Amino acid sequence: MGAALHLEIGNRYSIASVLYFPPYILLQIPGNLVVRKFGARNYLTACAISWGAVQVGMAFVKTWHTLTLCRFLLGACEASFFPGIVYIISSWYTRYEVQKRLAFFYLLSLTIAGFSPILAYVFSLLDGKRNIAGWSWIFIIEGTVTLFLAFTFFFTMPDFPEQNTFLKPHETAFVLQRVEDDRGDSVPDQLTAHKVLHHLGDWTLWAYGLMFMCCTLPAYALAYFITIILNGLGWSTTASLLLSAPPYAPAFFSAVFFAWLSDKYRHRAGFIVVQGLISILGLCLTAFSERNKVRYFGIFLLNAGSSGCIPSILAWSANNVVGSSKRSVGSALVVAFGGVGGIIASTVYREQDFPRYLPGLWVTLGAQFLLLFLVGVTSLHFTAHEQAVKDGQARRAARGAARFLLHSLKLSKR
């Protein structure tokens, strides 16, 4: 594709990559605001069908300008899907049940995506069949599969708990009561423009977004550049494609393990820090080691750490949000910052830095330290808030006891 569309000229590849993200970022919150109105099944199915159609269309582009336009449309069509799914999952489960579900959802998609270089290599072997280039076959086949799954999705997608049609009324009531007992927001509150602006004024939502940006940056970097980076380490193009998949398998099990621990012990921040440190270690090995095998092992660690942080931060942000409208705004805002991470990844791994890509690796490393700093600040904020709540309760209890004692003394005097 690079040769056919002349993507190797200047920054064309980076431009085509990065223009996916502006609509992806800007349409996250609007998409989450209307998902209840149209119904999750209807709305998210329409999104999937739309991007599947665009994906098939990308097989037939003739210039890099048209490819860039398709990338822009792809970002617009995909924008609502991820935050919509996060919103739905967090609506069905209690606070300390969500991370395992989010981890399975995200990591299954990530693991499948990890094998996409191998699938791309296999599909590219169709080069010349029906006078269609190998890279075009990749888009045709994967786009067609997307369309098929989107139509299947319509019949299998669960809606929000109060809108579902597959549970009996008493079963739905049981689900809603569990959520109500856990956090008191099973009934969705009315969404207004004033509420949206009010929710956006909560600085912790923006902190979660920045954390999400920091951990998606290495994920996007690996998704876009792992084959190129491995090629720069000395492996052939075919070997680079095949070696791109293995780092995703251990990441799945590592992230699920940390998600299980986090839900079991009802703790988020500490496990995010541990996985952030794993990412930092992996980045250092990949960036600074002189041995290719060690640098390749660093990619395993980087993928494990960043992949585990993503569902951890989604769960942490969902746990500290009460109210359906705020959950809608919060999940969209956090996931939108993931698109910012994609923009950074698309621009800091530059062609002129081949083969080591040290500036990109330095930026990614700095993002991990920013992640740890934000986790620390947010944790201190919540600790102080909880202590203030406890102090307030203690003061109210003391005032109540004093009033009771005073009242008792008055009665005794009488």
UniProtKB/TrEMBL annotation:
Source species, domain of life: Eukaryota
Gene Ontology cellular component list: membrane
Transmembrane spans: 15-35, 72-90, 102-123, 135-155, 205-229, 241-262, 269-288, 294-316, 328-349, 361-382
Subcellular localization(s) per the UniProt record: Membrane
One MF annotation (Gene Ontology) recorded for this entry: transmembrane transporter activity
The Major facilitator superfamily (MFS) profile domain, residue ranges: 1-384
Keywords, sorted A to Z: Membrane, Transmembrane, Transmembrane helix, Transport
A Pfam family annotated for this UniProt entry: MFS_1
Gene3D superfamilies cross-referenced by the UniProt entry: MFS general substrate transporter like domains
Membrane topology: Multi-pass membrane protein
InterPro entries: MFS, MFS_dom, MFS_trans_sf
PANTHER family with a match to the protein in the record: MAJOR FACILITATOR SUPERFAMILY (MFS) PROFILE DOMAIN-CONTAINING PROTEIN, PERMEASE-RELATED
UniProt-recorded name of the protein: Major facilitator superfamily domain-containing protein
Natural source organism: Mycena alexandri
The organism's taxonomic lineage, starting at the top: Eukaryota, Fungi, Dikarya, Basidiomycota, Agaricomycotina
